[in-house]
Amino acid sequence: MELTQNYGARPAFLKTLSWFDWLYALILAGGALYAFNLYGHDMDGYEKGILLLSCAGLIGQGWVWKPFRALVLVVATLSLFGISQYHGQLARAEQAFFLKFFFGSQTAIMWMSALFVIATGGYWLALLSRSDFAARVSSAITWSAVTMGLVGLMTRWYESYLISPDVGHIPLSNLYEVFILFSILTALLYLFYELRYQNRQMGAFVLLVISAAVGFLLWYTFGRQANEIQPLVPALQSYWMKIHVPANFIGYGAFALAAAVGAAYLLVNKGILASRLPTVEMLDDLMYKSIAIGFAFFTIATILGAMWAAEAWGGYWSWDPKETWALIVWLNYAAWLHLRLVKGLRGPLLAWWALIGLFVTAFAFLGVNMFLSGLHSYGTL
Amino acid sequence: MRLAISLLTVLAIASVIGTVLKQNEPYSNYVIQFGQFWFQVFEFLGLYDVYHSGWFLAILAFLILSTGMCIFRNTPLMLREMRSFREHATEISLRAFSHQAEFASHVPPDALQNRLSQYLQGQGFHARIGAPSGSGDILVAAKTGSYHRLGYVLTHAAIVIICLGGLIDGNLPLKVEQLIGWKKIETRDLPLGEIPAASRLSPANLSFRGGVTIPEGSSADVVFLNIADGYLVQDLPFDITLKKFRIEHYPTGQPKSFESDITITDKTTHETLSQTIRVNHPLIYKGIAIYQASFGDGGTRLTMNGWNLFSPSSQPFTMHGVVKQASQLSNGNATYSVEFTEFRKFNIENFASENGDMASGWQNLLKYLKTGSAKSTKKDLRNVGPSFQYKIRDAQGQAREYFNYMLPILLDDRWYLLSGMREAPNEPFRYVRFPLDGQNRIDGFMRLRAMLMDKQAHPEIAHQFADFALQGERISASMKDKLVASTVKVLDIFAAGGYDALAKFIEKSVPSAEQEKAAQTYLKVLESAAVSAWRITQAKAGQPAVMDDNTLRFVRDSLNTTSDLFSYGAPAYLQLSQFDEVLASGLQLTRSPGKNIVYGGSALLVLGVFFMFYVRERRIWLLVKRQAGTVLFAMSTNRKTMDFEKEFARHKEQLARLLKE
Ligand code: HEM
């Protein structure tokens, strides 16, 4: 017994948890219970299940990845504060001080956009000047961007119910909303690995992808007024949306991360920025891990999508362009994984493949809506 | 293995084709799009239904086969690997490992064996003791994460299972029956009773997916399976009656829900079941799922006021029609058929001008930065009420299409009835505006038009106009006659072809230098005469005739509309006066026994993927060498990652400490 303790035997997971972990869990469980009391009678069985599982998922994620706890608590606090400022009137989004300048959904999302762009600049500065301080600051800014983005989604969710209770819905229903989700999830995945690898140099590349998404978001907002909250068409009125869409975007986010890492890999492999960026071994490892996560979630998302399609359209697979492109993306990464896992291939080919994979993914995500027609109603541009 | 990667890639590329080319369109569309030659080439290649074409199914079959073979070959090996501790590994083989280390140790080997096993167990490994033959050495072999190998079996088996489930639900059996000739696709538009048995499928059919449209108050007991350029009829074991179809709207006018109240009557047990189905809320009865898929018109009954345009009259006639059916319209010598194609109860139109270009986006951004408000374009959505659409076909078969709103619409501060006309389906509608009179009716315009178009009435108008124009002025009778004559002339020309005719007349008879002046004079005469005509018609109808700006605009509008009507092409304007809406619900019915197989396979797939990625297999061997007094440490994994390198370093360091004590 003594032996095992002395030599790094791994204690049971629950025993490693601190009092803060338990407090965090308690607060979340309390919150879920409160929501249950308040809205339970309006939810169907599936929605209750989703609430419980989300709560458990957030607790678990916080336990495994400690900074996540603070994020959840801060986002919850700010969102609740923001919501309290509406006094039940939508118009206050443009009048109340805190809503107009910070937490109203539109403003918070603008904060997110600005912070992501600033963080991108910061990471590049850090990379080029080898400044650890600048890198730390950029990390903090990225965390803030994620926070504001999540608060923006939360207040948007609330605003949709202020428009009219039957219009209200989770903000995952159109291209505008999922682009916000995409930026947030990609950043979160990156931040997770930043801590895991104790390395902030990859931020410059990952944030570049996020900034591109933010650029699209801004154009979409100001050029197309896509930020307006629209009621849900009948096909989207389903609890499936709450699980299918996030699962999909964890996948997309992870693939985007892998592509950014792939680009860095190719540069280092050519000797460009090699002294500033991580080693190819680390980049390769990160690329594999994010594709693995992405593949796992994308698999789940596609299956959930099929189950939803079965319920809404009467067939779990109709070879609709969106479905088919999801399959193509899936096959693409399955081939990638075979190359690496079965043939044991490493090196530039895989990095290129991951980079090009982003374009395949982006086509499934955007191109299908722009160029092809089908049953998916995620708005044309 | 190359095979697997190639197969995955080929399948991905093949799948792209079907997303680029719109699938399962009516064949006539493809002919228009590609021309006859390419149409046939593409048809031969099966590009109009790629995912059911022979070659695509062959790729799938090959995928199933090769994956199946792969599982068959690898699984026994994998399972053996999973169970085996490899406790008989030799020293030579251990020394060949890339990750190994050797420590000196003074602890007696038997005590060491316990200590090492304990250590490994503390690290989450399962250990077993083995003894390499011949020597007195002890081998502690340990492993963890063996389920990783199960991941391979599960994912690959899942892919085979999913594909098989999909093939059961796909139309594979049907395709075979078609090949043999048992079933034939019907391409003619036949009444249900006349469809031959070779094109009908019995209720016992294992799996199908088809649709049917049922008008309110009617029932159906078949669905239609659209295949290639024709269809098959699937008989159902029950009757479906549509009692009512509803569309609910949000305040903004977007549809909120589509619902059908249906009753099912079982053909064998005669039991009935009534339920409401909605999008996302199907009804499943005896393994057949019934979905709300679409909706349409089920024969709305329309009552209209018809205004004869060819021989104008100030009185309308009454006409009846049913959507999706044709009525006859006859005016003395010619007969027309009126085919009612659509009725819409609501029309939500945006009256705000659109702006969505880059420049306005940039301005919106600047505005947002200044004011914190991004709401720039106000949408002005208005419900302008019901509309209906019809084609008028003449005896030669030429048709024009019309789109009429039932209610007047406010345009430029005045109310009009709008009627759109187009000559070809791909053109936009061009609208004629009928101005409304002081009582907000179309009658005032029709009376005025009837008079303007009636040559016999022109002298009366001209006299009244001359009297009015020359009031108080003393002129000769011949001057007055001249004015009357020229007014009659202008009215005659206008009645023969509107402004166009007037313009042509001026071009022909006036020297070009004076054309503009002449045109102005003629217009003035025409307008003033029209005002006089309006007075006469108002008096005849017993309506007041107050002259003001409103009246003037009304008369001008009437002249414009009268002129526009020369290119309207219809013998009558049909003004909707009443409707009795009958909707039809589009239902989709499926029986898919493969669904649960596919779902089961999917569950295995997810499980397998997690085993494969998140369970890492690692093995440790510790060879305690009696004679040398050393311990050989070797470690392996089947997926080398950085985590593995770290773990190896950690074990090495800890074992070194453990063995020193
Ligand atoms: C979920 C997606 C898939 C994953 C994660 C996956 C993963 C793997 C892995 C890890 C192996 C190597 C097993 C080992 O030696 O350790 C493997 C082998 C193989 N896979 Fe897949 N696979 C997937 C889908 C497919 C598909 C769709 C095919 C069909 C073409 C396929 C065909 C093969 C073949 C032929 C082999 C080689 C078997 C042999 O001959 O040794 N796999 N796969």
Considering the chains and any ligands shown, give keywords for the structure.
heterodimer, A: 381 residues, mainly alpha, 13 helices, 0% strand, globular, disordered C terminus, B: 661 residues, alpha+beta, 7-stranded antiparallel beta sheet, 5-stranded antiparallel beta sheet, binds protoporphyrin IX containing FE
What report would you give on this structure?
The complex is a heterodimer of chains A (381) and B (661). With 381 residues, chain A is mainly alpha-helical. Chain A is built from 13 helices and no strands. Chain A is globular and about 60 Å long. The N terminus and C terminus of chain A are likely disordered. Chain B is of the alpha+beta class. Helices cover 41% and strands 29% of the residues of chain B. Chain B is built from 15 helices and 26 strands. In chain B, strands 14, 15, 18, 19, 20, 21 and 22 form a seven-stranded antiparallel β-sheet that branches. A five-stranded antiparallel β-sheet of chain B has the order 1-26-25-3-2. In chain B, strands 4, 6, 7, 8 and 9 form a five-stranded mixed β-sheet that branches. In chain B, strand 25 and strand 26 form a beta hairpin. At the A-B interface, helix 6, helix 9, helix 11 and helix 12 of A face helix 1, helix 5, strand 8, strand 11 and helix 8 of B. Bound molecules: protoporphyrin IX containing FE. Protoporphyrin IX containing FE sits at the interface of chains B and A.
